[in-house]
Design a protein that fits this description.
The protein is mostly helical. It is built from 22 helices and no strands. It folds into two domains: 204 residues, no CATH class; 215 residues, no CATH class. The chain is globular. The relative contact order is 0.08. About 2% of the residues have low confidence.
């Protein structure tokens, strides 16, 4: 088993090093300097190995730190309850969610595909050795941060120590459950393709994690200990199930298909997404338009892809309306809730940067634009002329902004109404700032995603993601937006700053598109 792990680790590291080198070669300017023989360069391979080690350490420690800090520690001031109980409460429910969503064993990754399907390694030895390593990483990664953050909150040390054990036991229990289910049904579960029932359970658990503390209900350490003992028993029993199972090859043949593997690491190029997008295209020959030129071309695209463009927006709008309806009723019926909401609305506007980031449909829309339009049209020289590129860009920007403004108007209006009903504010301009800043965030993300698509067009003719710069900008956007979660800043000043920034960003971005897009908007090699 040790030999299988060493071989698999070398394989994974080689793949990671080559990916690092490939990513470096995709960066602007640098890619023109570096030769194709780069993969043979020993010095660069050493650098690649160093980066690989750093990435491995990040998967062990950095992810766990960010998880505990942002998802648990930073949320505690919101609830104003006993920090020890609230910390344990949120940790317990998020751990169960993590056990359902991230078992490691049923995650289709390229290294597993290469090892078991291409190199024909012993599936059981490979799986068990790497699973043990994954659980050790989980335990080691969580331990320092449950202790550090726990002691800061005055959680007993022994409780901080058993928390990582609880995480590992929950994951092992769910892994054994999936294996047992496979024995019965002969259908392997892919943790990246969860069914509706599982998502419903996850949603309920999330509500328990963050909703119960809001209503002053949290579990105490005694209940956590009971849950820990149960997980310890089920986890130890599950180890036997996992170790005795001998159909790993059969199971992974279902999980590690080309479609599933590339759905994880290169979602934009998968056959599954292409087929899903194709199913939603309306090929009604009666679609007509009274417009001309670029507007005509774009309007036909919008009509044929209306399901892709509007389906999620409609769902978002329904959910947002229901949430605000519930909050309005609670505000009118409960004075304590009203006071709490009023205080939150005056300092927690930064949180909605992440909310608007999540709701924005920029990525999905630009992906649909490429797969069902630009993928083919960019092969024609006329489509790459400045006049056509800029003409189509203008029409697309109008559509994307109008789509994203629908949930933004509901959120902006809802927040403004809640502020008024919960007690109001001395300075009436705050109402305007809240409403306009939400709209500004929506417009910002609409412009950001479309500009990013035109300036860094990341796909090749096979719809594979080929731009490291595009991925980097995406990652930075996520990180910056996530950073605002839990930040408390005066609504007036933060909202005003958001509006000004959005206006300046949009002006600069549109100037860049006007000057650069005719050169950058092309198919990747």
């Amino acid at each position: 088993m040790l030999e299988a792990f060493i071989t698999s680790f070398k394989l994974k590291n080689t793949y990671r090093v080559n990916s690092v080198i490939y990513s470096i070669k995709q960066l602007p300017i640098i890619r023109k300097i570096l030769p194709e023989s780069l993969y043979k360069n020993k010095a660069l391979k050493i650098i690649g190995n160093i980066v690989s080690i750093i990435m491995e350490l990040c998967t062990i420690f950095l992810g766990k730190f960010l998880y505990i800090f942002f998802c648990i520690f930073a949320m505690l001031p919101v609830f104003k309850l006993n920090n020890v109980n609230t910390f344990i409460h949120i940790f317990l429910f998020l751990t169960i969610i993590g056990g359902i969503m991230n078992t490691y064993m049923f995650n289709p990754t390229k290294d597993k595909y290469y090892a078991m399907m291409i190199m024909n390694m012993d599936a059981k030895k490979y799986t068990l050795s790497n699973y043990i390593y994954a659980m050790l990483k989980t335990f080691i990664g969580f331990m320092p941060f449950t202790i550090i953050f726990g002691l800061m909150l005055k959680v007993p040390l022994w409780l901080c120590i058993i928390m990582p054990i609880f995480v590992v036991m929950v994951k092992i229990t769910f892994s054994a459950y999936v294996i047992t289910d496979f024995k019965k049904t002969k259908i392997a579960k892919n943790e990246n393709l969860l069914n509706k029932l599982t998502w419903l359970v996850i949603g309920i658990l999330l509500l328990c994690a963050y909703g119960m503390p809001y209503f002053k209900i949290v579990i105490n350490p005694f209940i956590f200990i009971i849950c820990f003992i149960i997980s310890l028993i089920t986890g130890l029993l599950s180890i036997k199930v996992i170790n005795s199972f001998d159909k790993y090859k059969q199971m992974y043949k279902q999980i590690l298909t080309n479609e599933n593997v590339y759905a994880v690491e290169n979602a934009s190029s998968t056959k599954a997404i292409k087929e899903n997008v194709s199913k939603q295209i309306e090929l009604d020959k009666n679609f007509k338009s009274n417009k001309h030129g670029f507007a005509y071309f774009h309007e036909l695209f919008v009509k044929r892809h209306s399901k892709i463009l509007t389906k999620a927006i409609k769902k978002q709008s329904i959910v947002i309306t229901l949430i605000f309806a519930i909050l309005i009723v609670l505000t009118l019926k409960n004075k304590t809730v009203a006071e709490g909401l009023n205080a939150l609305l005056l300092v927690y506007l930064p949180y909605f940067v992440f909310v608007m980031y999540i709701l924005n449909r920029g990525t999905t829309v630009t992906q649909a634009m490429f797969m069902n339009c630009d993928h083919s049209m960019l092969t024609y020289r006329i489509y790459r002329t400045p006049k056509v590129i800029l003409g189509v860009f203008k029409e697309r920007l109008k559509t994307l902004i109008s789509l994203n403004l629908i949930p933004a108007l509901l959120i902006g209006g809802g927040l403004t109404l809640l502020l008024y009903l919960s007690g109001g504010v001395a300075e009436p301009l705050n109402y305007v700032i809240i409403f306009v800043s939400i709209l500004a965030m929506s417009i910002f993300f609409s412009v950001h995603y479309l500009v990013m698509y035109y300036l860094l067009q990341p796909y090749n003719v096979n719809t594979e993601m080929k731009s490291s710069t595009y991925s980097l900008v995406q990652g930075l956007t996520y990180f910056v937006c996530y950073f605002f979660i839990g930040e408390k800043l005066p609504t007036f000043y933060f909202g005003l700053a958001t509006i000004i920034f959005s206006i300046l960003y949009c002006i600069i971005a549109l100037i860049l598109v006007y000057n650069k897009a005719p050169k950058t908007f092309k198919l990747r090699a």
